[in-house]
User: Fold this.
Amino acid sequence: MSTNLILMLFAVFLIISIAVILSMFVSLAKQGDERRNMIIEKASAKTFAVTVLYLLFQIVESLYKIISGTDFSPEGLNPFTTLTVIAVVYAIELMYHKKKYGD
Assistant:
């Protein structure tokens, strides 16, 4: 693949990631009725659970790399990647609960 195509694909991915992150913050900031609040609470709770599991997986992976001797200085978490994963999981959960409870 050419370099220009790779840069275009990266730019599209970056724009989509930023849009998902911004939409997550906008949906959390909106005020609504009790049903909307329940939908946001359910989506947030499940997203929190997935985030905790993701972070625990990263910790176990880092410990494994140190113990196995493959990497003595594991890198930290990339904040943009972590935020993107959280935003995508939240968007999926929000769409699911909106469809289920009709908002």
Notes: The mean pLDDT is 84. Residues 1 and 97 are 40 Å apart (CA to CA).
